[in-house]
Amino acid sequence: xxxxxxxxxxxxxxxxxxxxxxxxxxxxxxxxxxxxxxxxxxxxxxxxxxxxxxxxxxxxxxxxxxxxxxxxxxxxxxxxxxxxxxxxxxxxxxxxxxxxxxxxxxxxxxxxxxxxxxxxxxxxxxxxxxxxxxxxxxxxxxxxxxxxxxxxxxxxxxxxxxxxxxxxxxxxxxxxxxxxxxxxxxxxxxxxxxxxxxxxxxxxxxxxxxxxxxxxxxxxxxxxxxxxxxxxxxxxxxxxxxxxxxxxxxxxxxxxxxxxxxxxxxxxxxxxxxxxx
Length: 277
Hints:
It is a single chain. The chain has a single domain (3-274), classed as Rossmann fold, CATH 3.40.50. Helices cover 39% and strands 16% of the residues. The chain has 11 helices and 8 strands. It has helices at 37-43, 70-84, 96-107, 130-143, 149-156, 159-163, 168-179, 186-193, 222-231, 247-250, 252-265, and strands at residues 3-6, 9-15, 22-26, 48-52, 89-94, 112-118, 209-214, 236-240. The longest helix has 15 residues, at 70-84.
């Protein structure tokens, strides 16, 4: 189990190695590197694929703080890129991973070749969501994830995935992975609920950017992706006809096609720091 001392903590990561351009995958809340298995499987022959677990999630160390804030996770990612020698890399972030990717692209563009934002937003958590998410988080903290598994599954996955009788085994797998979260996951959830907006920073992003969203995402609705697309100059937007907040596993072929095409278009393009104009 590869672990790396990063920014004062221990992060679990997985690295395919290889001589290809590096891609760093940054997952969403409640999940782990497993969220990107379909993308790593599809891309590992051409790229060096690295995926990691955020502090407080997956197999990474858990800090004793009330909320794991996005600025700390941003610094974690910077140190990870440095220590693994990944820069400049392609960054793929889903939801929470996108919060981190936007900060890197806006503040440290020389570290990125491209940015892919999946099911994410530059805004704070909508006020309408905060009471419900806070209650779910309190229940999970006191009693574990099992009592809240059903409502959380409906947040994390779209109706097509949840209702398809042919995907019952996959649903069971992801429900089991959800239940594997330790009770101290509440620290990471607090960080997402209380996050600050970066909408004032993203217009400064100049690295090539792809925004992906599933039409069935209820956690970060497609209108949020449209807003990102409008805020980030020259960005591309891919709206998937299906897929919820975990489209990388719900609709892997659609995500892989959009991501693969975008990455292929960046071949031989110089990193952001060497571009002019």
